[in-house]
Amino acid sequence: MIKQCEGCGLIIQHTQPDQPGYSPKEGGVLCQSCYRLKHYGDISKVNLVQVDSDTVLEKLREMDALFIWVVDLFHLSESMVSGVSRHLGDKDILLVGTKRELLPKTVSHSKIMAQIDDFLREANIEVVDTVFVGNQGQHGKEDLVYTLKQHKEYNKFVFFGTTNAGKSTLINALAEKSNTISTSYLPGTTLDMLVVDAEFGTLIDSPGIQESTPLIGQLPLKALALLQPSKPIKPINYQLNGNQAMFIGGLGYIAFSDAEDLSVTCYLPLGIKVHRTKLDRAESQVERLQQDLLSIKGSRLVQHSIKQIKPKFDCVIHEVGFICITGNVGAISTYFPKEVTVTTRRAYI
Q1: 317 in Cβ contact with 248 (< 8 Å)
Q2: Does residue 47 contact residue 10 with C-beta atoms inside 8 Å?
Q3: Of the candidates 190, 46, 71, the residue with the CA atom closest to the CA atom of residue 125
Q4: Alpha-carbon span 305 to 255, nearest angstrom
Q5: What are the CA-CA distances from residue 77 to residues 57, 80, 198, 285, 333 (Å)?
Q6: In whole angstroms, what is the distance from residue 218 CA to residue 145 CA?
């Protein structure tokens, strides 16, 4: 009898210990990898896979369901999934923003919604509603369940989104089961469609979509854990004048030329070190700072000029965090490895 792992969705097999889906126990509901992850927190043998958006969305569009697009409110820019409009444009989509607790409490609902509106405009998608949740789906769960129940025409709810957006954790919370589906800070632990029953309908977890994020594949496991904060982000502000450089861990740096009372506020996970230095000393600091945990050893830094969105904008370092820049500055450039994506947007906070 073919049995699917309840943690990752792979077909359980008992003959090839070095292959995904292996379980030494006949009749078990978890593969060995998910069992060790659930009971011991062991990530050394976790099955990982990279899934592109077209692969997932082509499968989803054949389903009759309400689609739940799960986005990470802290890593909102990175939560974009290409092709949603093309594949699911005629479907009903509910957007759920997770990890609300990571944003400072001073960030109002209206500010978050302004960013969500920009996000949906870029995706060219209209949604039936938007719900925010936090604390691993526990805060805001009642609002989400109420919203799902309002769509009485559906008894299936399909969750999709990028890796680490919090889909599996959210489904576990909705089903009121502890770690039914494998969750960790590693990208891509759900490998196939998983079905979980809840009192209000059937919840379907799809594989996390991994767009072009080569940074994740270049970092050690301890650095990946660092990038998945569990506590609220504490902003750190710097006032810059003249020519200054700001290193983000050992990944690279942002160069500010001719700054005048420039306010730079960093929204980064606890443990990521920010090192400020004079711009003319930046190059000499690169090799030393690449000994930091958050670094790609021996990587060559690539320069890009930043287009300023005045008077206040965010510089987003994908998978890491964002920096809010306010004030007057002659020019801004970034120096990061090619694996690091840096974009700008209007200020989130």
Answers
A1: yes
A2: yes
A3: 71
A4: 9
A5: 19, 6, 30, 29, 20
A6: 38
Q: How far apart are CA 242 and CA 89, in angstroms?
A: 48
For residue range 87-146, list pLDDT tens digits in order: 999 999 999 999 999 998 888 999 999 999 999 999 999 999 999 999 877 888 999 999
Pairing of strands 331-336, 302-305: antiparallel
Residue 152 tokens, joined? 């009485």
Cα–Cα distance measured from residue 72 to residue 83, given in angstroms and rounded to the nearest whole number: 18
**Chain segment 14-34, per-residue pLDDT in tens:** 888 777 777 888 877 777 777
Distance CA(194)–CA(10), nearest Å, equals 9
pTM above 0.90, yes or no: no
> What are phi and psi for residue 327, nearest 5 degrees?
120, -165
Domains identified in the chain and CATH numbers: 48-211 (3.40.50.300), 236-346 (no CATH)
User: Do residues 157 and 65 make contact, with C-beta atoms less than 8 angstroms apart?
Assistant: yes
As a whole number, mean pLDDT of residues 171-193 equals 60
